[in-house]
Specification:
The chain has four helices and six strands, in the order βαββαβαββα. It is of the alpha+beta class and 160 residues long. The protein has one domain: Cytidine Deaminase, domain 2.
């Protein structure tokens, strides 16, 4: 028997520790939550990506009464960024969430498995890690790469 241990390096920054670029992405992700369409879950999620060319692209969750037909903020944002700038790598992605009363989550939220898979594919597509920021009012988590969020991933090497 062999044991494999994988760990994730996470940095927690308070709001006053964020640099100007990080603050800009948090603000963009938070603002994107207000354009969310979440009448069923009442959970409004926004995402902002910083591309290598300096562009910031935002997106949000879009629900549908047939639940599988909706789409998370992270995937909406990454797909939009990749369709608008197909040859430009994603440098950083920030995620924020709030309720319909406007209260942002205290703890940082983490992307679902499907979003993690798309984030990982985006990293592989460009051969560069995406720095992940998970916003909460109590602090923001920083993860070095989307692959850190999905350490045992399905990727192109898994295909026959």
């Amino acid at each position: 028997m062999k044991e494999i241990v994988k760990s994730v390096h996470i940095i927690l920054k308070e709001e006053n520790e964020l640099n100007e670029l990080e603050q800009q992405l948090v603000t963009a992700a938070k603002e994107a939550t207000f354009r969310s369409y979440a009448p069923y879950s009442k959970f409004c999620v926004g995402a902002a990506v910083l591309l290598e060319n300096g562009e910031v692209i935002t997106g949000n969750n879009q629900e549908n009464c047939a639940y599988p037909s909706g789409l998370c903020a992270e995937r909406t944002t990454l797909f939009y960024a990749n369709s608008k700038y197909p040859d430009v790598p994603v440098r950083m992605l920030c995620i924020a969430a709030r309720d319909t009363k406007g209260e942002f989550t205290n703890s940082p939220i983490s992307p679902c498995g499907a979003c993690r898979q798309v984030m990982l594919e985006t990293e592989h597509r460009f051969g560069k890690p995406i720095k992940i920021m998970l916003y909460g009012t109590d602090g923001t988590y920083f993860v070095d790469s989307a692959s850190d969020l999905l350490p045992v991933a399905f990727d192109s090497n898994s295909l026959l």
